[in-house]
Amino acid sequence: MLRFLLRRFVVALLVAATVLTLAFMLTRLSGDLAISIAGANATQADVELIRKAYGLDRPVIVQFFDWVGRAMIGDFGESYFFKARTAALIGERMPVTITLGLTGLLIALFVSIPMGIAAAVNEGAWVDRVVQFIALLGQAMPGFWLGLILMITFGLQLGWLPISGTGSWQHYVMPGIVLAFTAIPALTRLTRAGMIQAMSSDYIRTARAKGLSRASILLKHALRNAAIPVVAIAAVQLGFMLGGSIVIESVFALHGVGFLAWESIGKNDFPVVQAVVLVLAVIYVALTMLADILNAVLDPRLRTA
Amino acid sequence: MTTMTTIAAPRRGWRAAGTWIGAVIVGLTLFAAIFAPWITPHDPYAQDLGKRLLPPFWMDGHNPMHLLGTDQIGRDYLSRLIYGARISMLIGIGVTITSAIIGIAMGVLGGFVGGKVDDAVLFAITTRLSIPVVLVALAVVGLMGSSFTLLVLTLGLLLWDRFAVVARSTTMQVRNLDFVSAAWCAGCSRFHILWREVLPNIASHLVVVATLEIALAILLEAALSFLGLGVPPPLPSWGLMISEAKEYMYFSPWVIMIPGIALFVLVLGINLLGDGLRDHFGTGTQ
After folding, report:
1. SS3 at position A200
2. Do B135 and A276 touch (CB under 8 A)?
3. Which residues of chain B does A140 touch, with a Cβ-Cβ cutoff of 8 Å?
4. Closest Cβ–Cβ partner in B132, B143, B223 for A143
5. How far is Cα B246 from Cα B256, in angstroms, rounded to an integer?
6. Is residue B274 within 8 Å of B268, Cβ to Cβ?
């Protein structure tokens, strides 16, 4: 078990280091950063001033190790546009994104687990077909478009929920629903497949033979085993959802990290962009590691992997 | 072939119907995309400020010249929608070809050679999965300026993971089968074995992945264009149409409904077709 944990941790570190490098390279794509920061009306002297001020006159390799060294201790430099520490900006906005991600995940789990169970129990019947069709619809739904439709219906026509902003819990309902849609198809299919497999296994036959109630068999025996991959994938899905929240945060003007990144891209604010890419990637890496460990704890057969 | 002709259990019937519906949707979209200049009633870029935001044919006050109405600067919506199919299909196919080349090369290599090479491939896949796709694509387009080619390349470089995963695992299954051993014994080169023995035998799995990737690329392009960092205006991308019409959606909801439904139906059709292909090849259950 210890060996497994250690191995998993080393891989996670290596991935984080690679993303660190990629995030740096990403922002050097546009050529001369100083010109981009200075803007269209800047004179040559302005550009030189900016180049000096931000240390862009140093060799790229020096800039790289400087960024790596600082990033390791959580210092992502200063935002050109917001004139504030990048780490502070991200820290300020992160709770919004995490709240949104968790809201989306909770909604997704509340919808997909019952749907998956219902489909598995009625395999091949109309319930199963309806559930699979819903999963198919969810997969084809463009999130930003669903967001706009919800805004028109629940925000404007019914007046139940606020259309944009971050003020209260109501602000998270519609974005949460939209975000949940990205995870519902996968989680539903996984629950369904896991339950079908569990229901046809020997221990369920034993439970049936013992005369246990249907509810007990389903919830205590089958679901426990079917839940293992669902829990793991839920953690991975949360990582994807945080990464994908940029679109939904922009639609609903929810001031989270995704919205910050979108604003920064528009303003050529490189330190923020590369920091957000890195932070989201590290969160994803941590979540997948958590998922693997959780899997190993829940299912001892996987520990040797 | 087998799936289509087996005695119709009701589920098979449903599934087959789904496949056919998917095929018809994709076929019609392809037709629209290819023949756009000949079937559009108007120039998709021609503005007419005297005819702004005309409603579509099912609403009062519509103009029979513009079946699906006009947008905020008087461009014919149906014509833009048809040209939009072109953009979606080109993005879907272009991105999928790019990502297929990268992903299949890596997956086959890792699965076939194994050992350290395979470790490297697995590491690349893990790293790729940790990168937030939408954010990086937005950043690249934002930094380098939006263009169609750049978008295709960026998404192609980001979406190869599923190809690599599937190519790797299926190559591992095929690697030790008798016909591959036979080819080794017959003195075939490594390249010959990969190209003529392995690849054709994993192709059906890859075709199924390709449908998923086309659908994903189309959805991503729409989302990026919606955020203003996808294909540049005035190209009639469906995502861009939704973005440009957004201000008017509270008073005339159809301006976002029409391109949105087109997008939704096309992606649904591609997924239905993909599910059908998976059943057909029998690649779903492993």
Report:
1. coil
2. yes
3. 215, 264-265, 267-268, 271
4. B223
5. 7
6. no
- Distance in Å, alpha carbon of B143 to nearest chain A alpha carbon: 5
pLDDT tens, position by position, B43-91: 888 777 777 777 887 877 777 777 788 878 778 888 899 999 999 999 9
CB B263 within 8 A of CB B218: yes
Cα gap B153→B74, rounded to integer Å:
33
Query: What tens digit of pLDDT does each residue of A222-255 get?
Result: 777 777 778 778 888 888 888 888 899 888 888 8
* Count of Cβ atoms closer than 10 Å to residue A131 Cβ: 23
ipTM above 0.90, yes or no: no
Average pLDDT over residues B257-285: 85
In the CATH hierarchy, which fold is given to the domain comprising B74-283? MetI-like fold (1.10.3720)
Give the residue extent of every domain in chain B: 74-283
The answer to whether the beta carbons of residues A254 and A248 sit under 8 Å apart is yes
Residue A250 contacts B where some CB pair is shorter than 8 Å: yes
Contact B227 A262 (CB under 8 A): yes
CB-CB under 8 Å, A149 with B127 = no
Each residue's pLDDT tens digit, B148-170 = 899 999 999 999 999 999 999 99
Distance between terminal CA atoms of chain B?
19
